[in-house]
């Protein structure tokens, strides 16, 4: 019997779809040009032509949020893409190589987990300078270690199954078995983990941009917007609400999507999660 | 048990050693002359030469690494360029802010998460359960630094109950110091509590399916007593494991949250060191935090193995 996708999946998909749509729309249209500075109209409350108000330079907050979505998604996608490109093959190789490869991935995981993503990004930016590329590099390496561990665990379970033993008995080599039998069977787990890592990358990018180490001005980013809003908390408190809400809704959408996919792929989880 | 503890200590030492290599190697990536990067292009030639000598840049990298690690083992993290003081002293001064902050946030998150997890199980499938799960789902999605800003907005700007930032120091008295740490600790504790509440709920539900619980119920032990005396103690093991794993996120969160509240802790020291291009401080603080995370994770593993022999047997 085909299982129905849980409602968490659909809610998550709707939120992520909205995020994507806003990011894509910002390529074609924003209510105001994002770099348009109007000091006379600074820190306006929401309403009128500026639906969400203006920032301390008089820039339209909605336009900044829309372009911020694009930057946030781009950094997170690149960090997760880099993580997947390095981590998935490494995890597959570790499972195929047996004990030696296992040990390597385990130690690599221990090492990377000793450096929380934000900490490694701080270390890299201290040396190479602040900027989106170094953030992608730091978050990508952290994601690679997580994905290598997850892929290895799932791949080891597939290697123990009978159809893999049968393929080996028929003379298939480890590379062929990995590509034809193991990889398709671990993809579900990898996709679920990827959505979670995407959410983590969005939060970390925002945190680093808040500190001034991530996406650099004049490019808008949600984290930088929060940092700027904090200095005007007394005069324009709502400016601190919108970027945070954008981050929270994106993360909520991605975690719901991941939870929904996981429950769909493995119904045993359903009792333990929200949905 | 002893064999497991020994094996885990060995991997701990190996990981900590690898962490020192990574930190050292990353700083070797500095394009050009690290002394020039730290002092800027307008630095005097003799100042540059003095810094190069202090950093040992005229020696080969392997020798410098061995000296640096030797120093680390003796508690010598080098001398800060900006403060002209030993980094170890700076770290010790900042730890009196960061350590209580981390402990307070751990205490707050655990104190909230365990009752919430119990409530969810006791009201399973009903309003209380849904409320806890809703909190867990939303709490995880909230970045701690945004929570921090919202807390400042509500409790400092609007209500004026807590300071919006800064730290008066412990010499001003425990109460003012704790007041300054309350909002930062809450900001760190809320996402942590969301994760832990969910883990506690799942762990208790898993335990409730075990034979000894059914036996206790069959013998007439009340539902509440079974939950508190039989299910909860067994569920604490996975909670402690997740708590240990979350530590690295707490460290990263503290770096950002300390900056939101301008708390003079390790995170603030690290952040300022980047602005001042004080690579010696960055190197010392990062390696210390990394070794701390590795150490706590190993201790959690060993404590869990001591409390429950099953994972040890499986390993």
UniProtKB/TrEMBL annotation, chain A:
Report the residue ranges that make up the ABC transmembrane type-1 domain in this protein.
69-258
List the GO biological process terms: transmembrane transport
Chief location? membrane
* UniProt key word Transmembrane: yes
PROSITE patterns per the UniProt record, alphabetical: ABC_TM1 (PS50928)
Membrane-protein topology = Multi-pass membrane protein
Q: Which UniProt keywords apply?
A: Cell membrane, Membrane, Transmembrane, Transmembrane helix, Transport
Which GO CC annotations does the UniProt entry carry?
plasma membrane
- Name the domain of life: Bacteria
Positions of transmembrane segments: 7-29, 73-96, 108-130, 136-159, 179-203, 240-261
Compartments, as annotated in UniProt: Cell membrane
Listed Pfam families: BPD_transp_1 (PF00528)
Family, similarity comment: Belongs to the binding-protein-dependent transport system permease family.
Q: Which protein are we looking at?
A: ABC transporter permease
What organism is listed for this UniProt entry?
Azospirillum cavernae
From TrEMBL, chain B:
Please give the start and end residues of each transmembrane region: 95-121, 133-162, 235-257, 278-300
GO terms for molecular function, please?
dipeptide transmembrane transporter activity
Q: Which parts of the chain are coiled coil?
A: none
Q: Where in the cell is it found?
A: Cell membrane
One cellular component term from this protein's GO annotations in UniProt: plasma membrane
Membrane disposition: Multi-pass membrane protein
What keywords are assigned to this protein? Cell membrane, Membrane, Transmembrane, Transmembrane helix, Transport
Q: Where is the ABC transmembrane type-1 domain?
A: 95-300
Please report a single Pfam family linked to this protein.
BPD_transp_1_N
Similarity annotation: Belongs to the binding-protein-dependent transport system permease family.
Q: What is this protein called?
A: ABC transporter permease
> Source species, please?
Azospirillum cavernae
């Amino acid at each position: 019997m085909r299982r129905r996708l849980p409602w968490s999946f659909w809610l998550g998909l709707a939120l992520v779809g909205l995020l994507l749509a806003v990011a894509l729309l910002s390529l074609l249209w924003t209510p105001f040009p994002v770099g348009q500075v109007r000091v006379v109209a600074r820190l306006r409350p929401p309403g009128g032509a500026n639906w969400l108000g203006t920032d301390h330079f008089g820039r339209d907050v909605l336009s900044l949020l829309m372009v911020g979505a694009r930057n946030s998604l781009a950094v997170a996608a690149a960090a997760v893409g880099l993580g997947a490109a390095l981590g998935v093959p490494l995890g597959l190789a570790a499972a195929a190589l047996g004990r030696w490869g296992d040990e390597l991935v385990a130690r690599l995981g221990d090492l990377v987990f000793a450096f929380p993503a934000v900490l490694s990004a701080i270390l890299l930016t201290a040396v190479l300078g602040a900027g989106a590329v170094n953030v992608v590099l730091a978050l990508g390496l952290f994601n690679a270690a997580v994905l290598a561990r997850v892929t290895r665990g799932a791949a080891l379970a597939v290697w123990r199954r009978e159809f893999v033993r049968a393929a080996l008995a028929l003379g298939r080599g480890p590379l062929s078995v990995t590509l034809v039998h193991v990889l398709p069977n671990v993809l579900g787990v990898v996709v679920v983990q990827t959505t979670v890592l995407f959410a983590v990358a969005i939060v970390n990018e925002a945190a680093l941009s808040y500190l001034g180490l991530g996406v650099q001005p004049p490019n808008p980013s949600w984290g930088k917007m929060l940092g700027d809003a904090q200095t005007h908390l007394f005069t324009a408190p709502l400016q601190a609400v919108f970027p945070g809400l954008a981050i929270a809704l994106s993360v909520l959408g991605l975690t719901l999507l991941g939870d929904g996919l996981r429950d769909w792929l493995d119904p045993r989880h359903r009792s333990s999660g929200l949905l | 048990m002893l064999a497991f503890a020994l094996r885990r200590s060995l991997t701990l030492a190996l990981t900590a050693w690898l962490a020192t290599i990574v930190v050292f190697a990353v700083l070797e990536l500095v394009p050009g002359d690290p002394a020039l990067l730290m002092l800027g292009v307008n630095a005097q030639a003799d100042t540059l030469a003095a810094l190069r000598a202090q950093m040992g840049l005229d020696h080969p990298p392997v020798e410098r690494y061995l000296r640096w690690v030797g120093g680390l083992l003796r508690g010598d993290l080098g001398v800060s360029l900006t403060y002209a003081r030993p980094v170890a002293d700076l770290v010790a001064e900042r730890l009196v802010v960061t350590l209580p902050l981390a402990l307070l946030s751990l205490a707050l998150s655990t104190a909230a998460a365990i009752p919430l997890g119990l409530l969810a199980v006791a009201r399973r499938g009903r309003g209380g359960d849904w409320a806890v799960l809703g909190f867990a789902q939303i709490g995880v999605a909230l970045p701690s630094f945004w929570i921090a800003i919202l807390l400042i907005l509500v409790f400092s700007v609007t209500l004026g109950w807590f300071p919006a930032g800064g730290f008066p120091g412990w010499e001003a008295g425990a109460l003012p110091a704790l007041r300054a740490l309350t909002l930062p600790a809450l900001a760190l504790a809320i996402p942590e509590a969301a994760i832990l509440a969910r883990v506690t709920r799942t762990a208790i539900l898993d335990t409730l399916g075990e034979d000894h619980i059914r036996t206790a119920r069959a013998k007439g032990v009340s539902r509440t007593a079974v939950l508190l005396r039989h299910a909860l103690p067994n569920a604490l093991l996975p909670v402690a494991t997740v708590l240990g794993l979350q530590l690295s996120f707490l460290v990263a969160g503290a770096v950002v949250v300390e900056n939101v509240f301008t708390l003079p802790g390790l995170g603030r020291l690290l952040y300022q060191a980047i602005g001042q291009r004080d690579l010696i401080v960055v190197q010392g603080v990062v390696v210390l935090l990394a070794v701390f995370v590795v150490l706590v994770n190993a201790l959690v593993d060993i404590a869990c193995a001591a409390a429950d022999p099953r994972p040890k047997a499986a390993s």
